[in-house]
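User: Just a sanity check before I run the rest of the batch. Below are the structure tokens for the first item. I only need the designed sequence back.
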């Protein structure tokens, strides 16, 4: 997934006002909770909502959104103040929950993503569920998605736990894994070479 560097100075005003009660808000209102903004978009990108809408730079994203890119689409999201999610082509990602101080939950349906938080950000728990397994992190930068005919997971910075088929592995910086198909347990992590990292 190739993205040009993006400025990291965007601020969000009043981002999580009243978010403490989010879990008690009905679904229709919960979807109206603004948790982020589109930093950059290329090609077709949309949110299934509600409401369904095209995504362009500066457009808000909400809890409950299923964010999607087309075959030639790319999307960069900023969630909260310090979390970035980059999405490759033909990718579907649902923002199930996002609270800057207590963590986030996503569902990766298809495609590839990069999750990025700075090293000095609060280490709140984040989970990403996919058909291949559960990714659990605390403040890191990682890639997840198709890579060389497998589902690949690579950690550039920080630590990630991956759980699938009754087995858990821990990945630290520079390590990755490949899973050939859903339902298989993860192998032991191994270093990824520079060429493969660049591809991701």
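Assistant: Here's the designed sequence for the first item:
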């Amino acid at each position: 997934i190739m993205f040009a560097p993006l400025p990291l100075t965007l601020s969000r005003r009043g981002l999580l006002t009243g978010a403490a009660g989010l879990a008690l808000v009905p679904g229709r209102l919960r979807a109206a909770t603004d948790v982020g903004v589109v930093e950059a978009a290329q090609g077709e990108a949309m949110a299934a909502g509600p409401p369904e809408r095209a995504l362009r730079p500066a457009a808000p994203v909400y809890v409950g959104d299923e964010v999607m890119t087309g075959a030639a689409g790319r999307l960069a999201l900023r969630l909260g103040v310090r979390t970035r999610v980059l999405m490759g082509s033909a990718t579907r990602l649902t923002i199930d929950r996002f609270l800057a101080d207590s963590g986030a939950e996503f569902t990766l349906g298809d495609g590839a993503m990069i999750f990025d938080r700075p090293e000095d950000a609060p280490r709140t728990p984040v989970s990403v569920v996919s058909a291949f397994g559960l990714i659990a992190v605390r403040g890191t930068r990682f890639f997840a998605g198709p890579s060389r005919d497998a589902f690949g997971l690579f950690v550039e910075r920080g630590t990630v736990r991956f759980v699938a088929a009754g087995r858990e592995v821990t990945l630290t910086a520079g390590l990755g894994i490949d899973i050939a198909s859903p339902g298989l347990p993860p192998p032991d992590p191994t270093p990824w070479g520079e060429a493969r990292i660049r591809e991701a």
